[in-house]
Amino acid sequence: MFISDLRYVPRTCLRDWRMHFGTLIRGLGLSMIGLLALSRAADCQERLGEAPRERVHLYILIGQSNMVGRAPVEDVDRQPHPRVFSFGKDDVWVPAVDPLHFDKPTAGVGLGSSFARAMAEADPEVTIGLIPCAIGGTPLERWEKGGDLWSRALERIRAVADDGVIKGVLWHQGEADGRSAETAQSYGVRLARMVSDLRAELQLPILPFVAGQLGPFLPATQRDGNPAHWEVVKPQLAGLPRCVEWTAVADSADLTHTGDSVHFDAASLRKFGRRYAREMQRLQSRQQHPAFAAFEARADLPNVLLIGDSISMQYTPEIRRRLEGRANVHRPLENCRSTRQILERLEAYLGDRNWDIIVFNAGIHDLTLVDKDGRGAPAPEGAIQVPIEQYAGNLEQIVVRLKRTGAKLIWISTTPVGARAEAAGIRSNQRVTEYNAAAARLTSANQIQQIDAYTTLSERREELLEDGVHLTDQGVIVISDAIVSGLEPILAAASR
């Protein structure tokens, strides 16, 4: 038996294995160093084996040298946490002390250790397992589906997938792609595709993914004197959460380097890891939304799909409750936001299920004014996110695809905004009515049933909208009444 063979020891057998440890050592004639290494690995495996699988949270660490860490290891970095482990270079669980990675002899303090400690301290009932896979100097291309590092990372992930529950991905990369104008300009699109492919490969469609911003200290030129393109990569990293749901970006502002203007220093990496943890916790907290709660669909009931933004997320649980025993009410496991996003992800939303009814809405995000970074901003900094002509065109393409499902389609108009939202200057009821009119023309032409949420809420909008946009508890009841009333005749006909 080799040390690496420990990963194949069943969790229930670890304690018995330790009882015979002395006999094994004498039989193998291992050196004292080998004995200590084997004992430490066995101890880690036993402690992981004692924890319920659902309480072992696994995190994947991928990227290049700033994920590895190149800062010198200090005493504070050598102190293990009793509930934090790392899947080491010998393919066994070991205490998570720096260096976690092993790509080069220069591997040092990384952000993974402080991240894991923060996650463990936030929940004393969990054990954290890190799966380090990062390699210094590597471009995104090697991490994309089919790349050598993609395959290597999946091999390591699958080796330990049964030891716990994969809870998230940490990514820091982009410096290598900033060396070329071509790779820098395509970075955001390729990264979004990589995230989607990784989730599909792991069959975890809403796996939280936290990237880190590049260092603020990166110079304008590369070491060879050629211009760098890191300033092209940075906004694409910052924009990842607007393109891909369940992603976040940890800020690198005020962090400093080791003296080489490329790598974060030790103190900065410890701080950076805690920032990653905050973003990961925020994503995980959002996933506790009741709209995403799992339920058991009944084969004898019609399938209803709700597609919509955060307002539809609010009424999803109420619709599901009211139709319990009469319909399976599903929704995508994300905020569907705008017509642009729905059009991009519609095939994933539809999946391979046969839909009987599809209830859909989009508009409030489309008509919002945003700045160049995608944040809400009034004019002149802000511009309409999806102009009305594009909105109508997107909606037309969505309708064409939805009609091919054969489902009964129901359109819900965009809800009004309250005085507080109008005062902010990024949304207005004038634009809401204009966008609703465009949607009404299209849905009427396609003989699609309409539910007028705007009129339903308009006269009482100050009472029914808690922040001028989202629904109060009473607002959820009022709009759910309207939606269920629209569904009732269809469900009644289906039951006959």
How far do the termini sit from each other? 65 Å
The tally of domains stands at 3
Helicity range of the residues? 40-55%
Q: Helical segment tally?
A: 19
Biggest beta-sheet profile: 7 strands, mixed
Q: How do you describe this structure in short?
A:
The protein is α/β, with parallel strands linked by helices. It folds into 3 domains: 1-49, no CATH class; 51-286, Rossmann fold; 291-495, 3-Layer(aba) Sandwich (Rossmann fold), CATH 3.40.50.1110. The protein has 19 helices and 14 strands.
Features:
single chain; 496 residues; alpha/beta; Rossmann fold; five-stranded parallel β-sheet; 19 helices; globular
List the helices and strands and how they pair.
Elements: H1 14-19, H2 21-28, H3 32-50, E1 56-63, H4 65-68, E2 84-87, E3 93-95, H5 112-122, E4 127-132, H6 148-160, E5 165-172, H7 181-185, H8 187-202, E6 209-212, H9 230-238, H10 240-243, E7 247-250, H11 266-286, E8 303-307, H12 310-322, E9 328-330, H13 339-350, E10 357-360, E11 369-370, E12 383-384, H14 388-403, E13 408-412, H15 419-424, H16 429-445, E14 449-451, H17 453-458, H18 461-464, H19 473-495
Parallel strand pairs: 1-4, 1-5, 2-4, 5-6, 6-7, 8-9, 8-10, 10-13, 13-14
Antiparallel strand pairs: 2-3, 11-12
Helix pairs in contact: 5-11, 12-19, 13-14, 14-16
